[in-house]
Amino acid sequence: MKKITVPDILKMKEAGQKVPVLTAYTYSMARAIDSAGIPVILVGDSVGMVEAGYDTTLPVTMEEMVYHTRSVVRGRTNALVVSDMPFSSYQVSVTKAKKNAARLVKEGGAEAVKLEGGKSRIETVRAIVDMDLPVMGHIGLTPQSVHRMGGYRVQGRTRTEAEVFMEDAIALQDAGVFSIVLEGIPAALAGEITAALDIPTIGIGAGPHCDGQVLVVNDMLGLASDLKPPKFVKRYADLRAVITKAVGEFIREVEEGEFPDKEHSY
Ligand code: KIV
Predict the structure, then answer these.
(1) Nearest residue to 56 (alpha-carbon basis) of 132, 172, 141
(2) One digit per residue, pLDDT tens: the chain, 266 residues?
(3) 216 CA to middle of ligand 1, Å?
(4) What's the predicted TM-score (pTM) here?
(5) CATH (one of 3.20.20.60, 3.40.50.10490, 3.20.20.70, 3.40.47.10) for 6-235
(6) Atom of ligand 1 lying closest to residue 183 CA
(7) Which of 30, 54, 80, 219 is a Cys-bridge partner for 48, taking CB atoms 3.0 to 4.6 Å apart?
(8) At what angle do helices 62-75 and 94-106 cross, to 10 degrees?
(9) CB 80 within 8 A of CB 111
């Protein structure tokens, strides 16, 4: 396996090769999914919800993103690491956005940054791309806009909304992003946007026509909360059940004096 770079991701679209992406937030998870061959790891601001227990991604700070990015970078060998710009790290001013994007690369070790939004973010995207830092866009259901959207609802169901997302995607491509996450939009619209772009689209809750797919690793491994996962999440393992069983055995063995035995003692 070889180190994956931004140009490799662009070539995957040209070659008609799908791009699998997973989130990770820790050294150990990054090691596990990198050695399984994942080409792209996203250090998502979803860390705030799935690891810190917040209701939204809004409280996540730059310091937290730098910390988690560093941990992931130390754990991966081949995957491209993309780090999310958290809420208020890029919306306040272009200067602040440039500084914060640079921090994720310089202090965190990320190879690209992701930020949410379409036409309203073009100036910011251009400014970061002009620093030679690769940017991934993110449109559709943008979790940092949860309060404007009134919840985590599928977006782009009306023709007008769909047209806005198509224009956003083209404007982001023109501004120089190397790929775009399409989240929570109808599959047909995601297919139209994917066909209109030269850069890869990475879908989450956006159907099968995208060039790649991303899932939150805690969701796909069954490590998330007890709540029923959204329709688009496929659970590939039930690690929570594995943990419950292992911890139950440990408790019983300690209580009954079975652990530590001779084999695990000096
Ligand atoms: O924060 C995140 O994990 C994300 C993905 C869901 C695309 O933005």
Answers:
(1) 141
(2) 799 999 999 999 999 999 999 999 999 999 999 999 999 999 999 999 999 999 999 999 999 999 999 999 999 999 999 999 999 999 999 999 999 999 999 999 999 999 999 999 999 999 999 999 999 999 999 999 999 999 999 999 999 999 999 999 999 999 999 999 999 999 999 999 999 999 999 999 999 999 999 999 999 999 977 778 899 999 999 999 999 999 999 999 999 999 999 999 99
(3) 7
(4) 0.97
(5) 3.20.20.60
(6) 7
(7) 54
(8) 30
(9) yes
Q: Which two tokens stand for residue 203?
A: 């879908």
Q: Please name the residue that has the structure tokens 């998870």.
A: 29
Atom of ligand 1 nearest to the CA of 23: 3
Which of 42, 49, 68, 146 for mutating ligand 1's site (highest number of atoms within 8 Å of CB)?
Answer: 42
